[in-house]
Amino acid sequence: LAGSLPAILSPTWFTSQQLLVPPPITLTLTPDTFPPSSLLTTTQLGNPYFLLFCLSLTILQTTSENHVVKAYLRALWIADLSHVAFTCIALGLDKTLDNYCKLER
C-alpha cells in the first residue's frame, strides 16, 4: 500500500523523486512540470503495487494452507531480491551502498 499511494495520489511528487538530480526547492511542482505521459506512467506503476497489496490481503487472510502461503512468500522473496539486484545493476554497487549508508545515518 505504501508503494502505491504516493504514485497514485501524487504522481507529480512521485515522479520528481525518481529523478537523478531532484528539482530545485524553488521549483513549484505542478501537474505541468512533467509531460502527461510521465504522470500516467507513474500512476500506472502505482496500480500493480496496489494489486499486490490486495492480493496479499486476500491470500494471507483467506487461506489456511501452508503450501499456498509458502509459495506466495517465496514469490515475494524472489521479486524482492530481483528488485535489489536490478537496482545494483542500474546504479552500480557503489551508489547502491552509498544510498543505503545515507539511510543508516
From TrEMBL:
Matching Pfam families: DUF7704 (PF24803)
InterPro entries in the cross-refs: DUF7704
Domain DUF7704: 1-98
UniProt-listed PANTHER family: CHROMOSOME 1, WHOLE GENOME SHOTGUN SEQUENCE, EXPERA DOMAIN-CONTAINING PROTEIN
Protein name: DUF7704 domain-containing protein
Organism of origin: Podospora fimiseda
